[in-house]
Amino acid sequence: MVIKRKSDREIEIMRSAGRIVAGALAMAREIAKENVSTEDLNTRLERYVLQKGGIPVFKGYRGYPKSICTSVNEEIVHGIPDQRKLRIGDILSVDIGVEFNKYVADAAITIPIGEISEEARSLLQVCEESLNKAIEKVSANNKLSEISRSIQEYVESKGLSVIRDYTGHGIGRQMHEDPQIPNFVSKELLRADEILLQGMALAIEPMICVGKYDTEVLKNKWTVVTKDRKLSAHFEHTVVVTENGAEILTI
């Protein structure tokens, strides 16, 4: 494992990338409504990123065809935008990564489309709060496993499940860098636990679900869904470790 600490100059560039990500997600919240297609969201957010001088880093990444990921209801991550129109009661996870001057920031939100069920509303609230609790654990000299533990304990205390097959990650010059950041604690994580150091940049992204955490990938070879087809939510921020806590770069 090679974890790259970022200099002040690198962090400043990542702040710029993060501001573009935040602006794109704010736009997604505004335009994700009933009868809007996920393809329309992709087109408009891509245009926004390019206008701000960024590069949509997902597009072409390992062959991914679009600039954002749009995952609806039981879809966890990597949903591909298409002509599907959003409906009242849907929950939509929007994930976007932006490269700016060769550095990357990445974030995700889950958006309610109109009135949603109480079950869905609680899912979104717990997922976002688990991210906030994880970020509170980010500080120099804390352990990486404390981030994972905070997510798992909070989510499971609410009777929900943490997805096991996909994780957060380091970030910087590449979208995916060391370390991996699971949303649960395992023996493997504890054996390879890392001490957080000032300048580490992390993309923390709890993915949680109402039912069991088992997943499968659809025939398009990208979209990940819950195997039991129950609802899933996803929130993410890019943060940098400081001496006194976390600086969130994607707000």
UniProtKB/TrEMBL annotation:
<dbReference type="InterPro" id="IPR036005">
    <property type="entry name" value="Creatinase/aminopeptidase-like"/>
</dbReference>
<dbReference type="InterPro" id="IPR001714">
    <property type="entry name" value="Pept_M24_MAP"/>
</dbReference>
<feature type="binding site">
    <location>
        <position position="236"/>
    </location>
    <ligand>
        <name>a divalent metal cation 1</name>
    </ligand>
</feature>
<feature type="binding site">
    <location>
        <position position="106"/>
    </location>
    <ligand>
        <name>a divalent metal cation 2</name>
    </ligand>
</feature>
<dbReference type="GO" id="GO:0046872">
    <property type="term" value="F:metal ion binding"/>
</dbReference>
<dbReference type="GO" id="GO:0006508">
    <property type="term" value="P:proteolysis"/>
</dbReference>
<keyword id="KW-0645">Protease</keyword>
<feature type="binding site">
    <location>
        <position position="106"/>
    </location>
    <ligand>
        <name>a divalent metal cation 1</name>
    </ligand>
</feature>
<comment type="subunit">
    <text>Monomer.</text>
</comment>
<dbReference type="InterPro" id="IPR002467">
    <property type="entry name" value="Pept_M24A_MAP1"/>
</dbReference>
<dbReference type="GO" id="GO:0070006">
    <property type="term" value="F:metalloaminopeptidase activity"/>
</dbReference>
<keyword id="KW-0031">Aminopeptidase</keyword>
<feature type="binding site">
    <location>
        <position position="169"/>
    </location>
    <ligand>
        <name>a divalent metal cation 2</name>
    </ligand>
</feature>
<feature type="binding site">
    <location>
        <position position="236"/>
    </location>
    <ligand>
        <name>a divalent metal cation 2</name>
    </ligand>
</feature>
<keyword id="KW-0378">Hydrolase</keyword>
<feature type="binding site">
    <location>
        <position position="78"/>
    </location>
    <ligand>
        <name>substrate</name>
    </ligand>
</feature>
<comment type="similarity">
    <text>Belongs to the peptidase M24A family. Methionine aminopeptidase type 1 subfamily.</text>
</comment>
<dbReference type="Pfam" id="PF00557">
    <property type="entry name" value="Peptidase_M24"/>
</dbReference>
<feature type="binding site">
    <location>
        <position position="205"/>
    </location>
    <ligand>
        <name>a divalent metal cation 2</name>
    </ligand>
</feature>
<feature type="domain" description="Peptidase M24">
    <location>
        <begin position="12"/>
        <end position="243"/>
    </location>
</feature>
<dbReference type="InterPro" id="IPR000994">
    <property type="entry name" value="Pept_M24"/>
</dbReference>
<comment type="function">
    <text>Removes the N-terminal methionine from nascent proteins. The N-terminal methionine is often cleaved when the second residue in the primary sequence is small and uncharged (Met-Ala-, Cys, Gly, Pro, Ser, Thr, or Val). Requires deformylation of the N(alpha)-formylated initiator methionine before it can be hydrolyzed.</text>
</comment>
<keyword id="KW-0479">Metal-binding</keyword>
<dbReference type="GO" id="GO:0004239">
    <property type="term" value="F:initiator methionyl aminopeptidase activity"/>
</dbReference>
<feature type="binding site">
    <location>
        <position position="95"/>
    </location>
    <ligand>
        <name>a divalent metal cation 1</name>
    </ligand>
</feature>
<feature type="binding site">
    <location>
        <position position="176"/>
    </location>
    <ligand>
        <name>substrate</name>
    </ligand>
</feature>
<dbReference type="GO" id="GO:0005829">
    <property type="term" value="C:cytosol"/>
</dbReference>
<protein>
    <recommendedName>
        <fullName>Methionine aminopeptidase</fullName>
        <ecNumber>3.4.11.18</ecNumber>
    </recommendedName>
</protein>
